[in-house]
Amino acid sequence: MKDTKIDVRKIDIGISEEHRIAIAKGLSKLLADSFTLYLMTHNFHWNVTGPMFNTLHTMFMDQYTEQWNALDVIAERIRALGVIAPGSYDEYKKLSTIPGAVGTPKAMEMVALLVAAQEATARTARDLLPLVTEANDQPTTDLLTQRLDVHEKTAWMLRSLLEE
Fold this sequence. Notes:
By secondary structure, the chain is mostly helical. The protein is built from five helices and no strands.
């Protein structure tokens, strides 16, 4: 995110401009991963087939609904730090650590791809914690902790479907 745009207004919330920009860059990566995960989950909800159709269709709907709501929280935290939140497919593609799914995978392959995407999103959130702690940014710490809880729990639930 080299074209980081800062609000014209001076922001004095007790976090240096340098920290605010660095945290916003990290949150932008989290937003990109979260959006990519949302899109993947919604796609799989639409296209899942097989004996576990109903279970997976419903589970994926719960997951993409939660992810959709999280996007706003992450983007609004970026804005509160005085930085423009990324909002295009091109930006997300550049920032995301999650590769897009190709074609229409079988149901259990969808589950495995979602496990990997949930884990990647958790890593992105966790990687930002040291900087946020250094900056004494409790709201972002809280946001990251909540996201970690969701992504780790969801990955565990999905992973359990892959066990024999």
